[in-house]
Amino acid sequence: MEKRLPVQHTGKWLFHLQQERTLQFHIASEQGGSSHVLIEGHAISALLDYLYDHRELIYDATHDQEMRHLEANETSDDLPINKRKERRVEPTRYFDDGVRRTRANL
User: Fold this and answer.
1) What is the DSSP string of 3-69?
2) Parallel, antiparallel or unpaired: strands 23-29 and 13-19
3) What's the predicted TM-score (pTM) here?
4) 6, 5, 39: which is closest to 19 by C-alpha?
5) How many other CB atoms are found less than 10 A from the CB of residue 26?
6) What is the pLDDT of residues 81-105, one digit of tens each?
7) pLDDT tens sequence across 8-62
8) Alpha-carbon distance 70 to 51, whole Å?
């Protein structure tokens, strides 16, 4: 039984997982040509392990300083503390002379 998954296009490369008797990972250039790389079975797992072990290097090489700064700001904008600051309400202050309370900001 052949199970075909969608092909992923990146603009330069085509990636495709295909499951026939064993799992196969196909990589080909979008610029044409008939050559492609075929990775099968356990080698796919080894490739993923290798990429995972070097994820910091890959991230640093593919994200420039400005992009990292923007991502950090987006992450900090999502924190509940910052959302509370946005919804902050001015406190109401009162003077109490022992007889009655008077609102201070009137």
Assistant:
1) EEPPPEE-SSEEEEEEESSSEEEEEEETT--S-EEEEETHHHHHHHHHHHHTHHHHHHHHS-HHHHH
2) antiparallel
3) 0.50
4) 5
5) 15
6) 555 556 667 777 777 787 777 877 6
7) 888 888 888 888 778 888 888 888 777 888 888 889 889 999 989 998 888 887 7
8) 24
Between CA 68 and CA 60 the distance in angstroms is: 9
Question: Which amino acid is present at 51?
Answer: L
Question: Residue 64 is which amino acid?
Answer: D
Dihedral sign from CA coordinates of 69, 72, 77, 78? positive
Residue 13's closest CA among 38, 30, 34, 36?
A: 30
CA atoms within 13 A on the CB side of 9: 4
Encoded amino acid at 86, one letter: E
- Taking the chain, what is the end-to-end CA distance rounded to the nearest angstrom? 78
